[in-house]
Amino acid sequence: MGLSVYRRTPVRETPYWQAREGSGGPSAARPTCHDWPVGRLVESVPNFSEGRRAEIVDRLAGAVDSTPGVHLLDRTSDASHNRSVLTLAGDVEAVESALEAAVSVAVDTIDMEQQSGEHPRIGAVDVVPFVPLGDTTMDDCVELARDWGQRVADRFGIPVYLYARAATRPDREKLADVRRGQYEGLRDAIVTDPDRRPDFGPPRLHPTAGAMAVGARPFLIAWNINLASTDVELARTIARTVRESGGGLPRVQANGFRLEDPDCAQVSMNLLDFAVTPIWRVWEAVEAEAAAAGIGLAESELIGLAPLAALLDVANHAGAPAKAPVEQRLGAAASFIRLRDFSPLQALELRLAAAERAGR
Description:
By secondary structure, the chain is of the alpha+beta class. It folds into two domains: 7-216, Formiminotransferase-cyclodeaminase, Chain B, domain 1 (2-Layer Sandwich); 221-359, 2-Layer Sandwich (Alpha-Beta Plaits), CATH 3.30.70.670. Helix content is 34%, strand content 21%. The chain has helices at residues 54-65, 92-109, 138-156, 175-178, 182-192, 232-242, 279-292, 308-317, 326-336, 348-359, and strands at 7-8, 41-44, 47-48, 70-78, 83-91, 125-132, 160-164, 212-216, 221-227, 252-259, 264-271, 297-303. Strands 1, 2, 3, 4, 5, 6, 7 and 8 form an eight-stranded mixed beta sheet that branches. α1 runs antiparallel to α2, α6 crosses α7 and α8 (308-317) packs across α9. The two termini are 34 Å apart. The model is unreliable at 1-38 (pLDDT under 50).
């Protein structure tokens, strides 16, 4: 889901809480997240198909931020893509409650019949991934995604497709396959094509909210590189060259876009496993392809947060002293990849630690 020119907005942290009472999952035969011990942590990074109306994004963020037990760690929005991304973490039950509250706001305020933007999408709440933190396992997140996905499908009448590790069929593991045809194409296919029927919910799009993809996955780094050029065809060529599906870097997804603010072409990427393909290797690959066309790189931008280890790996490659303070090493990493609006709190672990301190 690489996104572009996202404007990061300060967030207010709230303390953890004693987990609320929750309803059971969709199947009594399957253990649900409500059986988990208090203190089990999870991250979620929901993507909403709204990036132009600040008042709606404020309501979405407010639904999360006002939920006891959840830390709203980051919020970013982009007008060209007409998309906003929230990063939240906390106890499992608190996170699922916050997400459900945000879905309610999205259903009430986003009309997919009127929505348009650069980014692929199938619904008002386009994607909801669950990411394990701490002692939480990937299997835990798979159960959570399936439980929560069915509950919101039942409550809101939204068709839900399970993807990534939560997928129940191999042709839905990749998000791009779930979003094939986007909202407009899925509107007909969900009714006429049995292979496009959802995992949960009705076999038709919600009249305004469309559909939703819900999954479980490892940490994904959404990261974009802006070219010192407006040549969108060059950006698309570079994206095809560096992405895994084009024979390029493993565990990298990429596409090219033209932006209005700033006025440039962008290579927009998802890094699915920074241990396989680190950030610095992607930067150097894009830099080499652009240089071959006589173009330089202007800057890069991180959408949401990145694991501390991923950024320190860039610092190591850039030659930052291993014994230097972590903030200094992160600064060296940001300088190497020309990271826009850098803050040490773009490292997930540092942001979460700061949120926990503020909540005490």
